[in-house]
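User: Modeling request: complex.
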Amino acid sequence: MMATEELDMLLERVKALLTEVFDRLETVAGEVVARRRAVLAEGGSFGVREVDALKPILVEQIDAQPAADGFGFFAAAGLLPERDRHFTWWQRGGTGFVQLRLNLDPSSVDVYDYFEMEWFAAGRDRSHRSVFGPYVDYFGADRYVFTLTAPVFDETFLGVVGADLRVNEFEPRLLAALRGGAHDAVLVGPERRVIAANTSRWVIGSRLPRTPRAGEEGFTAVGEVGLDSGWVVALAPRE
Amino acid sequence: MTTSGAPVMRTSLISPLNVGGRAEEVVERISRAILLGLVVDGEQLPTEVEFAGQLGVSPMTLREALAILRQQGLVETRRGRNGGTFVRRPVNPPRDPLEERLRSTTVSKLRDLADEQFAVAGASAFFAAERASAASVRKLLQLVEQLAVAEEYGDRIRADSRFHIEVAMASQSERLTRLEVNLQAELTSLLWLPIEPRAVLEEAVADHHAIATAIAEEDGERARALSERHVQRNLRRLIELHLVVAEQ
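Assistant: Request completed. Predicted assembly structure:
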């Protein structure tokens, strides 16, 4: 197989893995839009209660995706009549599902102001999805995660839906996607961070000295995964 | 869901107790998390059943612990529709229990804790220099600044411990992060007790700044060496403080 054919095959597989999760985010986003339309059509208002009522669909998505740690929705400023900042986020707990709680009180020094977060701004200002990680999300078992987000629009910006994926569960799938070719393959994210590789040459979490480019540093073919991920797959001859 | 070293900490930071944990242990665990700023001011605690499950204690034990924390003013329970139990963090942690802990922690124990921290902080800094995201580096520099302007010892404890936890997180290692959180809970709350007047703030800020700079410049060996020296300096300081309170 030519390096370019192999590259296309690996790119398609990695893309399929992300697409599967983004499809779930789209399902949640679609639900937000549909429920809001329904409430407004009846002359009601879409508020905190309606956001919190998303729980069953969030839990359903977590349940259906074994690598998922959590799913949630963060509301846009001005969406809800009661307050500017509100979100609902559910994650796997020791037994059952646990609601994530964050301090959104802007008068507190410890406020978690999600309006300022990169992933929220990407949705609001550029209509972009985002893929972050892997990163350590504080402390505790299985908190080495990827976060995927997607904006929710219904003519106007309504907010951002997101999912956390546990590296431990997602890594084997990424690895499977990179196998089966004739080359050493590495999946690299923004900031040149290694996300997965089919060889021990590159280790997850570490950063490459340079962004891989075809014809440089021994790489024969490099391609973008797309979906606003900033991920690239790079192939090099087997060591 | 708190990408890029966001300034949020949460109750999941509080690790479970051993089987049969007593209310006093639960109190100790939660109050440390509050004082280090691992659980933020105003944060709502999980429901009693959820929280007890997370900590691995019975709901009864947790209820007992929450009653003590309520008395100490560290949590507050509100009734009604938006009710629940919320974290109330004082500007400074109560001084007496900390002094008591400093008195009863022997020099050999302090040295042993610092030995572990030498390994953890050194390795964390080394890997952080290789792996830190730009957002983590920004956060580290912010935390250096936060320590420099911290007036109260409560603020100093938080800015200091968050800096070291952020370095561990930037190393991308869950295990190093967990170890560093526990070490910070044990050591940093003692380090800033206003016991004798020797100025150490500027020295600590300079150390942190040098470590953050080495990480930003991707110089792992330097970041490690600076962190190790910083831990040893802190140990000397802790021994000095212990000697003062143990004599009283």
